[in-house]
Design brief:
The chain has 139 residues and is mainly α. It has one domain: Four Helix Bundle (Hemerythrin (Met), subunit A) (Up-down Bundle), CATH 1.20.120. The chain is built from 5 helices and no strands. Helix 2 runs antiparallel to helix 5 and helix 4 runs antiparallel to helix 5. 23% of the residues are buried.
Length: 139
Amino acid sequence: MSRKLLGLLLATMVLSVVLTGCAGLPSAGAAQQAVCQALTKLTDPLDQFAAKGGNATTADVKALKNTLDGAVKAVETANKALNSEPINGLVTAYKGLAETVDGLPADAPLGADASAKIKTGVDGIQAALKQATGSLSCK
């Protein structure tokens, strides 16, 4: 095989690999829509967290956190194409709350200190959610 033919064949193979890889990426609009849809799934569990306030038990808090886990994971996955800083901030805020909740003993009552930390965490996530939905113009 001549070098010219070999070079042409190699260039064709590289181009086909590049084009195949690009075809798998979502458009910016599709990625934004996916993130916005994932963000809407956070609203109800966060509202439940906020509504429970100081009346929540440790079991309540852990159950609500488990509900949020999947929604936050969906947001994080959908954000991979956009890499939106407000979404990254929301995920970071959630991880802080999750760490607090995971550190609670399952059978202990929810004390004032833990309640205050949880409230602060939920407030931070709600603020980050508002900022994220605003920055992405989610409806």
